[in-house]
């Protein structure tokens, strides 16, 4: 294994999902729903395959999907992206993030990311030979946020880009306009590119609305805006994502993307275009369902003795395990199947400095109510 990747073993998601299967535990680790997306959208994928839509689609993506993404961003955010030249379809948000970082960074450039971060960020930065500069999100009155002074201190002469994930996995924070303004100001002062990971854009609760960083003044021209279908339509296995950015930035990302995968699988693209056009009502009901599931799991975990951070978005509840007498989330999650028959994710693996997150464990609530209830009843035995 090349030196730049030696720090990266098996992802925590593979480890913990395998542990769940091996031990027959309830899997509240890896974030994937246990119910399907909208039936009509699934049928579109079947129809696309049956209808012979099975050869290489154009490199930038199927025109119907690029058009649908463009309309979606116009309708929801008032952002205009030209489907020809400002929208690029990718193999999930994961490829988009990797391609963006590889496209933007010279070896030795620095990329800022808020820790804890989705694990592919550090790997993408390492693949580019760049350096990740973490800025820690910490709980303030029950919600994870950053210290603007720490963010400013992370910028140096080699800083090229900042990765911004909101709604945020794993903390559940949805950045406020004031937080986004801090980031926007910094990007403009230091001529940084923002790479935004908005895969949970539709999964926000209690009336909290997701604000894309690109909608802030001066940001559209310096933002690579990324999302995907997996979370919005409960099809995490479809791995269909997209990048929206000004032409020059899209061209840069596409230059890399074409040699990573050339293009993304065809049938899903047609189906997701249909979903974006016709199934946003379904997404609203998903959002309401998930809010109820969040309440169900947070109440259960609190009763079981965890300190719980109530998320404003995403699939995930971040918990503090210290009230239960545990200190190390990695040790606890490896033991949890035998202690309670449940699998969760140790948040420390999402930190550049794991000791800052060693007492946090993440639980997913994108599961059927009976599954959540059973997991909670098992976890209640821990106390
Ligand atoms: N970013 C975040 C924050 C995620 O939680 C995930 C997992 N869905 C991804 C990116 C990857 O998305 P995709 O499956 O579309 O590659
Ligand atoms: N995004 C999901 C999570 O955070 C799963 C990602 C993955 O399996 N790579 O759980």
TrEMBL record:
Keywords: Aminotransferase, Pyridoxal phosphate, Transferase. The lineage of its organism: Bacteria, Bacillati, Actinomycetota, Actinomycetes, Streptosporangiales. It holds the Pfam family Aminotran_1_2. The keyword Transferase applies. GO terms for molecular function: kynurenine-oxoglutarate transaminase activity; pyridoxal phosphate binding; succinyldiaminopimelate transaminase activity. This is N-succinyldiaminopimelate aminotransferase. Its EC number is 2.6.1.17. It comes from Streptosporangium album. Residues 26-379 form the Aminotransferase class I/classII large domain. NCBIfam families: PRK07777.1. SUPFAM superfamilies: PLP-dependent transferases. InterPro entries: Aminotransferase_I/II_large, Kynurenine-oxoglutarate_AT, PyrdxlP-dep_Trfase, PyrdxlP-dep_Trfase_major, PyrdxlP-dep_Trfase_small. It comes from the Bacteria. Belongs to the class-I pyridoxal-phosphate-dependent aminotransferase family. One of its GO terms (cellular component) is cytoplasm. PANTHER family: FI04487P (PTHR43807). Its cofactor is pyridoxal 5'-phosphate.
């Amino acid at each position: 294994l090349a030196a730049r990747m030696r720090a990266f073993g098996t992802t925590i998601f593979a480890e913990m999902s395998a542990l769940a299967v091996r031990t027959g535990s309830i899997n509240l680790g890896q974030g994937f729903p246990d119910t399907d997306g909208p039936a009509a959208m699934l049928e579109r994928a079947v129809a696309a395959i049956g209808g012979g839509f099975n050869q290489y689609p154009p490199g930038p993506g199927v025109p119907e999907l690029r058009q649908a993404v463009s309309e979606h961003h116009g309708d929801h955010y008032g952002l205009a992206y030209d489907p020809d030249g400002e929208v690029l379809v990718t193999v999930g948000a994961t490829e988009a993030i990797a391609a963006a970082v590889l496209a933007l960074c010279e070896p030795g450039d620095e990329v800022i990311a808020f820790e804890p971060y989705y694990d592919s960020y550090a790997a993408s930065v390492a693949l580019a030979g760049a350096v990740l500069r973490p800025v820690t999100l910490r709980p303030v009155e029950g919600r994870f946020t950053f210290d603007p002074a720490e963010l400013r201190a992370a910028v140096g002469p080699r800083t090229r880009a900042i990765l911004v994930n909101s709604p945020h996995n794993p903390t559940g924070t949805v950045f406020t306009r004031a937080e986004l303004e801090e980031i926007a100001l910094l990007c403009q002062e230091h001529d940084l590119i923002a790479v935004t990971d908005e895969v949970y854009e539709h999964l926000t609760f209690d009336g909290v609305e997701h604000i894309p960083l690109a909608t802030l003044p001066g940001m559209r021209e310096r933002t690579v805006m990324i999302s995907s279908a997996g979370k919005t339509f409960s099809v995490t296995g479809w791995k269909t994502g997209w990048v929206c950015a000004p032409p020059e930035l899209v061209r840069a990302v596409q230059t890399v993307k074409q040699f990573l995968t050339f293009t993304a699988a065809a049938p899903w693209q047609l189906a997701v275009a249909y979903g974006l056009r016709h199934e946003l009502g379904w997404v609203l009901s998903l959002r309401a369902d998930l809010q109820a599931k969040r309440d169900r799991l947070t109440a259960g975990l609190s009763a079981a003795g965890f300190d719980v951070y109530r998320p404003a978005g995403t699939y995930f509840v971040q918990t503090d395990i210290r009230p239960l007498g545990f200190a190390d989330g990695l040790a606890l999650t490896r033991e949890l199947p035998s202690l309670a028959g449940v699998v969760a994710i140790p948040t420390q693996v999402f930190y550049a400095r794991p000791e800052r997150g060693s007492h946090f464990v993440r639980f997913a609530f994108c599961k059927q109510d009976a599954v959540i209830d059973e997991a909670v009843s098992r976890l209640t035995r821990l106390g």
